[in-house]
Amino acid sequence: MRVIGLISGGKDSLLSCTLCSVDHELVGFVHMEPKEGQKDNSFTNDSPHGTTDGPKGEGIHVVGADCEVDSVTFQSVGSSLLQQALPHLSSLPLIVAAMDDQAGELGALATLLGRARQAWQADAVVSGAVDSNHQRDAFEAAAASAGLLSLAPMWRWPPARVLWSCQLLGLRPIFVKVAGAGLPVHLLGRSIDYLGEPDQAMRDGWDCDADEQLAAAVRELPRDDEAAANAAVVTRTLDRAAARFGVHQAGEGGEFESFALSGPLYDRASLVVGTTHTVLVTDDDVAPVAALSVDSFSLGPPAASSAADILGKPKRNLSIPARPFYLGQPSHTATSAAAADAGTTPSAVLVDPSVIVTTLPGDVRVVTHIPVGDSKDLKAALAMGLEAAGAGADAAEVAFVSLWLPNMSAYGEVNQAYAPLFVESQARGAPWPARAAVQGVDGAGRLDLVLVPGARRNIHVQSVSNWAPASIGPYSQASLTDAADLVAGQIGLVPWTMALAGPTVDDEAVQAARNVARVLADGRQRGAPVGIVVCRTSEQALPHPLLQRIVSTIPGADMARVVQRHVARLPKGAAVELVAVASSTLNPLEVLTTLY
């Protein structure tokens, strides 16, 4: 795909662009700068105005102001430096737009992405989102508005992995702002060279062996005495701040900002910092706020290797959809007339006698065997299920949907008919339910619902990442409730490629288990008992050793809470799909066996 890089100058944005360039064509950068009126004069650069476009090694003065803007979405420190340095550093073009008060930050970003998409015929945009749901949601919304797929290759990466990857790829980021407890002003200007240990507790479902290898490779990088001393200071400071104050070691919570000086995408030159001065915003013994203003810089040699060469990864044929389902669909907050038409439950609905309602503790209701003939019947089926649930059941309470299709080849058509079912409840703030879809061996179409009272939140990651498969259809990866976390059906898709793992069924099954583990790690019921239904297309049961691998991959799972079900077909021709529920108050397997 042709991909736009959303760049701030910091390590996360440049690292995400660098990782993306291994498998896709990066066509240019876009950058959001503060409006002139938003600039904080306390960050005004004291250097002479004017630039020098001299040969490499000659000093270049930075014009304008490095400023701090009250934004939880964009980094502003280093904006002037980035804009003036990037043409010297990279051959890729740059389009800049200002944060707009009237359109809002997201409106301005969507407009900027639209311009870039048209100029460069792009398919996607890549961002450096790591752990901020607000930031990722914002980027996804702006990307969708511009008709682009959102890519977030580092989503939910452990902090150490982010820092190690920057070091291995030669980005050489430095601290340009500190604002977190336990981060002293003397960090400013230091190279972010981290040599800490992998954090096992944060890596449910991740490849721990790969992290160990990455950490070992970073430790073996050449360092002189000064660099080794700096690495020791930075590692000790970040680890202590994380342990004592909960600081994110990669600065994802705004605890610090960085600026990358080099890297494979800087094919023209690297940046050498010249004169600087420090601006102290808040003088505090525990959590000072300060920024490094770069007055001048010079140019050094560019990186010698590409990201693919460093990582040893060839270009791959990927199956990431250039036009995911949610692009071009009606807004979730549709017009009132459309919402009313989509979500109204008829006053009198005839309930089919085959429908079964099971009530579990906490007034959790499981409604099964709602008949569905074809996609046109989905609205009536939902209404029937709500009527059967009784007690004023509402579509907003639907936390999980199990969709049994007469024919999996109609999956796309069903998605189009399914999306409007929850327009009205979404307009009232209810998130997409989690969902699983299978074709049963009997060929019958049916709808099963799990209704959970009370407020809930969901996991709805639309960005393609290395975390878990993106939600590119009308569903959430999980519904998170006080009673249980209900995970959408997970097939063995490799998240970054959105292609099935292979070549064996074992590979698919273990990848599906990793996907479940990563979703559950973000849930409310983390650490609670987990029940699993293994849907398989083979008539033969999965062997015991494979089930043990699945269980060992998912924290909270147990062989006593695993059942298998034979189905005819699964989405994308998968051989295995895992449906999981985690709960500390319900019997998770009882919830699942009521459905399957």
From TrEMBL:
EC numbers on record: 6.3.1.14
A single GO BP: protein histidyl modification to diphthamide
Composition skew (Polar residues), residue ranges: 40-50
Coiled coil residues, start to end: none
Domain Diphthamide synthase: 105-193
EC supergroup of this enzyme: ligase
GO molecular function, one term: diphthine-ammonia ligase activity
Catalytic activity: diphthine-[translation elongation factor 2] + NH4(+) + ATP = diphthamide-[translation elongation factor 2] + AMP + diphosphate + H(+)
Region (Disordered): 37-59
Protein name: Diphthine--ammonia ligase
Family matches, as PANTHER family: DIPHTHINE--AMMONIA LIGASE, DOMAIN OF UNKNOWN FUNCTION 71 DUF71 -CONTAINING PROTEIN
A Pfam match: Diphthami_syn_2
